[in-house]
TrEMBL record:
Gene3D superfamilies: Hydantoin permease. PANTHER family: PURINE-CYTOSINE PERMEASE FCY2-RELATED. Its main location: membrane. This is Cytosine permease. Belongs to the purine-cytosine permease (2.A.39) family. It is found in: Membrane. It comes from Actinomadura miaoliensis. The chain crosses the membrane at residues 51-73, 79-102, 123-141, 161-180, 187-205, 217-238, 259-282, 302-326, 347-366, 372-396, 417-435, 455-471.
Length: 489
């Protein structure tokens, strides 16, 4: 591992910033070396507009469609109420994604490494561990299930065999790393866009936009609207902890506004459009929750339905290539060292996550829809407090490091900022205890006032942001200055 010293050129980051080893550049058919360290300036490449398809492609999948189905068939909304909830929730998640993505080129590190500024080196283990499990295993399993069901429906092959094929494809992309992930999303984009555009045209042509919510479909009203908004936010914000992972290779002088715009727009378009189509599909009729994939494709001609099933499989691979890659980056951010050369650790972790995710997905095949709803809301529960701390820290540090290409505190094991993990943990406990609204646990407030729906993510964000701003002023909890020569990152 290489650490920059004062003898390096002035344009390089300061002493103490750990630099990723190896030569990679723009090579696609090569295993990305190193782990979660600073990307050398000579290795930077790419343009902001590439982020549009990087973040649109992984959302062009059936998991996105099914979330729109849930808004009507599961949460009891009419089509237009669902559209409003989808746009609001997805918009908030996309906005956060754009802001976080914009910091990648200047800092040159993964999103969870950036989090060490707000959480401290050890305290950052809280969000990094959650993201490792949620992305590398949770989202991986959820998307693998939707791809497996689509492939099995199309081919008639056994679901376990289809699952193995899907997992092998997505792990293969993530194994090679950053450049192949971007390339895969770029080439998958036109295929997914065309197929889903045709499928959407058939759905929208048959939809009854003025239909009432299905009988017995859910709470409806304000409560259903807030639950649907929370689910859409959780889906879009589920990408937020990955944001800088895919912008850190861009040159440091890249236009930050362009980076944020293309990244945020990709998330918003991919999430919003297909969720709306999913909501429209429910108004046509059929068993949208019992057989979501078959019912959706049953509304279109056989050829288009078959192409849609293929696109659903491809879209899930697009999503999981990102989930596995970023999940492995979060794992490396924990600081755990494997008995392998540094250049191979990320690739090895991606393979391990593939095996674990395969097992989790296999046991989730029987109840994909119900488990998916609960998982979406859980995602929002931890990400919203994390965002609260991150944005509060960015606001409080504004202008302090405007000219620095990187911050040595991100690689200093002695850097402490206990206000971050404390604020996040307290916000999670309070917001979930009082406002959670799930089948297995209903918080105190929605239990007594059902119209509240699920505002856990709003409460969690506000509590975490305010708590961090207050705790950071306490001398014992204030950030400690970085050591002059950290050991490693």
């Amino acid at each position: 591992m290489t650490t920059l010293r004062d003898s390096q050129p002035a344009q390089e980051p300061p002493a103490g910033v750990v630099v990723r080893e190896g030569v990679y550049g723009g090579k696609v058919a090569a295993i990305e070396p190193g782990g979660a360290d600073f990307i050398p300036l000579g290795e930077r490449h790419g343009r902001p507009r590439g982020l549009l398809w990087t973040w649109t492609s992984p959302n062009l999948e059936f998991a996105t469609i099914f979330l729109g189905v849930l808004a009507v068939a599961g949460f009891g909304l009419t089509f237009w109420q669902a559209v409003a909830a989808i746009a609001l929730g997805s918009g908030l998640g996309a906005l956060a994604h754009g802001v976080l993505s914009a910091g990648g080129p200047r800092h040159g590190v993964a999103q969870m490494v950036l989090g060490r500024l707000a959480f401290g080196h050890r305290g950052n283990a809280l969000p990094a561990a959650l993201n490792t499990v949620a992305g590398g295993i949770g989202w991986f399993a959820v998307n693998s299930v939707s791809a497996t069901l689509a492939l099995s429906t199309l081919t008639g092959l056994p679901k376990p065999l289809c699952l193995a094929v899907v997992v092998a494809a997505q792990v293969g992309v993530a194994f090679f790393g950053h450049n192949l992930v971007h390339a895969f999303e770029r080439y998958a984009f036109p295929v997914l866009a065309v197929v889903f555009a045709v499928a959407s045209a058939f759905i929208l042509s048959k939809a009854d936009f003025g239909a009432a919510a299905p009988d017995g479909s859910g709470p409806g009203g304000l409560g259903g609207f807030l639950i649907a908004t929370a689910a859409s936010f959780g889906y879009a914000a589920g990408w937020n902890p990955y944001a800088a992972d895919y912008t850190r290779y861009l040159p440091p002088d890249t236009d930050r506004r362009a980076v944020g715009l293309y990244a945020g727009l990709g998330v918003f378009l991919g999430c919003t459009l297909l969720q709306i189509v999913g909501a429209a599909a429910v108004t046509i009729g059929g068993d949208a929750l019992g057989d979501p994939t078959g019912t959706f494709t049953g509304h279109m001609p056989a050829l288009v339905g078959d192409l849609t099933l293929l696109a659903i499989t491809l879209g899930a691979v697009s999503a999981n290539a990102i989930n596995i890659y970023s999940g492995s980056m979060s794992f490396l951010t924990l600081g755990l060292r494997l008995p392998l050369p540094v250049r191979l650790q990320r690739a090895f972790v991606a393979l391990v996550f593939g095996v674990v995710g395969l097992v989790v997905a296999y046991f989730g095949l029987a109840d994909a829809g119900h488990s998916y709803e609960a998982f979406l809301l859980v995602i929002a529960y931890w990400i919203a407090p994390w965002l609260g701390v991150m944005f509060a820290d960015m606001f409080l540090r504004r202008g302090a490091d405007a000219g620095a290409p990187a911050d040595a505190r991100m690689f200093d094991p002695g850097h402490r900022n206990p206000a971050g993990p404390i604020a996040m943990a307290v916000a999670m406990v309070v917001s979930i205890t009082l406002f959670s609204n799930q089948e297995k646990y209903v918080g105190f407030v929605p239990e007594h006032v059902p119209a509240v729906g699920d505002i856990t993510f709003v409460v969690g964000f506000v509590l975490a942001a305010a708590g961090y701003a207050v705790l950071r002023r306490v001398p014992a909890l204030a950030p400690r200055p970085a050591a002059s020569a950290p050991a490693s990152g």
